[in-house]
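Limitations
The structure tokens in this dataset are predictions for the assembled complex, not deposited experimental models. Users should treat interface geometry with appropriate caution, especially where small molecules or nucleic acid strands are included. An illustrative entry is reproduced here so readers can see what is and is not provided.
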Amino acid sequence: MKTEQLRDYVSRYLEATGSQVLECHPAYVTVKLSPEADKALMNRPYYWSFVERTGAEPETMSITFVFDPEQFDRVQEQRKNQARQPTPPLSAPGQPSGSSGAAESSGQQSILAHYFGFSPAIVHNRVRQEPITFGSGRLNQIFASAKLKGRYVHLYEQPDKQVVLPGQSIRYLSYLNVNYKIEYTCDLKRDELHSLAICLSTGEIVSGFHEAVEHRPLSPKLPAHTHISEMISLPRAVAELEHYVERYVRSQEHGWAEQAEERMADELHRIQLYYQEMIQNSYDDQEKSTIEQEYRARQEEIAWQYKPRIVVSATGCGIFHLLSPPNSHRNLANQL
Amino acid sequence: MTKAVLPPHIRNINDHLQICFNRDWVDELSSRLEQNGPWDRWAFYRLAYEAEQVQAIRNFDDLQCLSHLSQLTPLPHQLETARKVISEMRGRAILADEVGLGKTIEAGLILKEYMIRGLVRRALILVPASLVLQWVRELNQKFGIPAVAQKKEYMWQQYDVVVASIDTAKREPHRDIVLGLDYDMLIIDEAHKLKNKKTANYQFVATIRKKYCLLLTATPVQNDLGELFNLITLVKPGQLGGQSSFNETYVVDKRVPKNEKQLQQELAKVMIRNRRADGNITFTKRHVKHIPLRLSPEEQDLYDSVTEFVRGRYEEAGGDLSSVLSLVTLQREVCSSRDAVFLTLVNLFKKTAEDSPLRPKIWELVNKIKLIKANTKAEKTMELIREINDKVIVFTEYRATQEYLLHFFKQHNLIAVPYRGGMNRGKKDWMMDLFRGRAQILVATEAGGEGINLQFCNRIINFDLPWNPMRVEQRIGRIHRLGQEHDVSIYNLSTLGTIEEHIVNLLHEKINMFELVIGELDEILERMGQSSSLEHDLYKVMLESRSEDDLRRGIAHIGDTYRRTRQQLADDRRANSEHASGPRTNGELPVIPSAVMNAVGQTAPTPPSLHPEA
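Predicted assembly:
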């Protein structure tokens, strides 16, 4: 993810949690977290259970997420310099810039002052700063929080006010959307994501559903005068979608699984050499059974590590009531 | 109800391959539909979808972990090792780099990669007790892996990535818990301790259920080929055949292998050994400068009186070493600063009975301290720092000296910050930042095991010296390590006519430790098998020697032991490299096993295409 993407993502997350942006800059954003975001990110369950039990007014944390540390430092430095210099118009015209040097050295001394406990020259800004990079713990936490909070939806596409004439009802097309994750796993792993949806009146399946509808005006509110027809039951729809996924997976090339099988056979053969010799050379039945037991444990480990398998799970799902069919890309279907 | 309508959730794609549908969501969705909610918000649904998109692993091969690591820039040989372990060695390997090349980093990269791919969730890292916290810190800070140190019984199950000492893990009640779990990955540091398959440790590790497995050791073979066989059996049983076929095929004598080419090939499938000598790993030079100083008359007087005092106590104690050990510290402290010795004397005074004849003697010493007006060493240090005119770390053994130096530097308008073991993590980091940014001097009392990153500085002043060479090496290791771009300068201050002179003499001339290659000291101490005892030996020599000559002889003896071990090591090395560099005409050299090791997995210069872009 690039810096702008990160910034965009985190900002939207903060907005969705209702956090209050205190300062917004291309390099960073400072927010006062909403209770929702504070609970999700700040790792202080005891505090929140205290607040809930006592009914105390919650004090949420403020935090600066830094996306571009270099630029952030420059901005901070500039700001510090501005703060240090006495406002220029007030100083007498005769003695212009002599004071800045003195300010500099007092700034430096404050390090020692800090340590020795003298009064600090710079008042410390209490807002916590955190760099946000791809892979950082905080971003992973935000990802995890978003995934937890965004799994099941039920949404209606909102009509333009002018379009709906009085007395007319709105006809909705209902879709079950499932965002599937297909994991191809052996001792290595690869993922595929497919956003599928099935129309609950016609049974038609579309792929690329999420991209097709993500910019439509969707809301959980059910508009007045609506007409919804769902012919297909949920289990039936699920079965249809699974069938679709299965057909897709079957059409794929599975050389990776064959190779994994070969690796597994290779590993099994290797330990066979080792254990057979040990079993043959064992002194008594008890020793033999111990070795056989260990051998079985090793065989199980190898199967666990190499056995190729495909796991299909849903990362999110929902019912979408649309005013027109999604402008689907049909990528998946075309490949069949 | 739903289950009745749906076909089985596991179906065969072909004879070998099954597809499994996870249907937890179906019930959840239908119950929410029935109750008309609660529903998640559209904004989060979109964010969740995007998170899945950026986190999905699109292909089997490329290393993903680089784009996830902002705190770390791995070196080419480390990346290449990680790639090789994952794609060629199938996640089971012995990482046998020489000391100082970053085995921990390699293991971290591999663990991180598997975690990102979702192939590893539960991991167990078994290390010597003294390294537990260091591993936890490195994994958290450098790799963003939420590892914890095992402290309580419940933690084995509660946390996914646990770092523990093998000695704890193998004991009940922990043993049963650990053996009852399935570990996606097992990492063992200092794995050469598992060379004997009869030990409880070995059998314990062999029984742990694991998918991927890494053993880390700089010395996979010390003297017996059988040990190597045992290590490999932990990772991949049968890689070298069964025990007897191994002996037939590869062993002439336990120290002498045969069919070496084949053995090397087989080893290279489970072991990677990067070597300093391989050329693409370079360390900068060390420049050592000794600065002998003469104490001022007042300081010398104090030193002599303290020495006399200490000897007197030793004799009174009837040669019982342990009761006066701490008194030698007094002598060392005089060489550091009057503040250090003052504190110790005052404490001693308080501990002594009121009617003891010692009290006046101690007080007399304290009075001598009062006569000292200047610190010869501190003056010299300041002079040095002014001359250097660059960032410097000043190491001292004593808190009181540290305080004194900070005060002294401040008076002379030098900007210095402290660093010591007792500080909490946040404060340490803050001091690091200040030192990196605005301060010129870091005055440190602690160097060991902190993983602090000070490569931006390349000068050290040893205001006084620890008596344990490992700790001296740790001090130097703070700045002289992979990633240091400049040559490193080390300044040792020593006061003539004191024990300090002898110590510097021992460390510098006898052990020659300032010019050792990185990692060499570890190997020497490993061979001597007694790293901590030097300090004790020194104390003994110190107290027991009747004369200056006695002292000199005693110290020379200690030095000789070191020198011999080092010589042996060098001989082995030479034998190895001659062997590794192909058949020599005079090649009747006894082939010691480590020669085979060294021919394994030498890193070729990595072609740029192998570095996945960050």
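Some entries come with short summary sentences. For this one: The longest strand of chain B covers residues 209-216.
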